[in-house]
Amino acid sequence: MLDLIREIGQAMRNNKLRTFLTGFAVTWGIFMLIILLGMARGVTNSFAERTSGDRSKRLNVYSGVTSKPYKGFKEGRWITPDVDDIERLKADNPDLVESVASYKYLGSTDIASVTDHISKSPEGVYPAEQEMYRIPMLYGRFINDADLRSLRKVMVIGTDDAKTLFGDAEKAVGQRVNAFGLSWLVTGVYDHEWLSDVYIPFTTAMAIGGTDGKVSNLQVKLKGMKTMEDADRATSEVRRSLARAHDYDESDESALYMHNRFSSYLRESQSFSILNMSIWIIGIFTLLSGIVGVSNIMFVSVRERTHEIGIRRAIGAKPRSVLLQVVLESVAITALFGYIGVFLGMTVMQLVDMAFGSSDFMRNPTIDISIAIEVTIVLVMAGALAGLFPALKATKVKPVEALRDE
Predict the structure, then answer these.
(1) Cα(403)–Cα(311) distance, rounded to whole angstroms?
(2) What's an example of a GO molecular-function annotation for this chain (predicted)?
(3) Where exactly are the structural domains of the chain?
(4) Would strands 154-158 and 182-190 be described as parallel, antiparallel, or unpaired?
(5) SS3 of residue 258 by DSSP
(6) pLDDT tens digits, residue range 314-367?
């Protein structure tokens, strides 16, 4: 085995330029494969984080307009969910609905502290809002169930608003502001990349907004969701319950707009699987150009060493040993330059991770050990394939003819 390794090394040293130019194509192919896989992994990780846990198992219901007549009502009626639907959906579908939340937008108003004021449209929410949008609390707490039960006049604001009203975000918690002619206690300050809403308890917002009971939407948390059929069944059952309550045709999908996040999650997951498969195919075809170069150089190598092969065959070398040498030489060239491509690709992805690894569109695009193992297998198989046909040609060399070869 050591003799074989020395022979392979000597063959590569004797043809340095040719080996380098051929190996460069392999390096470039693997480098591009690593970059593509890393970028795809970063986008996939970002998607997985946005839809992790129970966040994807939700059905959002929004107001709509009927498109079909029903029980004497003409089409074109405006249908809006109301607060009674919250308990109704849980009662009608206990095997599908885990909980129901909502939010209520209030009109724009001045929110004033002792020193300054801001103009905002407070949003009445349930505690689930924090999980849904991953609202990180910087100081204090978010809206809780006790706030809902007692219709408390409490408020959660963003860091920028807290600094405007009180000069220091940390000092905002426990302070009072005036809004809608009422005094409100600031219970929390959050820091979010793009959200800047002002949150108050949903029940308090409903009391301030009037007694019509209409809500901005319904956020239905589903349970038992595993397949697309489960998601479709949940949407149909929720639509049926709301159709009975609001007197519209349950086949009228425009009466209340419904967005099943779990259905979207399954479709997007399938899309990402196709994306990863496509990237592997593109990367392998890119690598193929380098493999063709390796195969060509091995054909040339076999032709140049015809005399040597003839001597080995004449003194008793078996065809298998000749085939093994050529194949292993091909694998060595492919693996050596391939790992250079792996190293360069992983280095670039580390730099990309440092620059964009915590952004919304990409999370941790680095390559882990599983990808490295997969690439290693691809390299070995590619190298063996590149050397197989030249090796078969080498085994067919006849000793007598090879010894006469000049």
Answers:
(1) 7
(2) transmembrane transporter activity
(3) 2-51+267-404, 58-262
(4) parallel
(5) strand
(6) 666 676 776 677 777 777 777 778 788 888 888 888 888 887 766 666 677 777
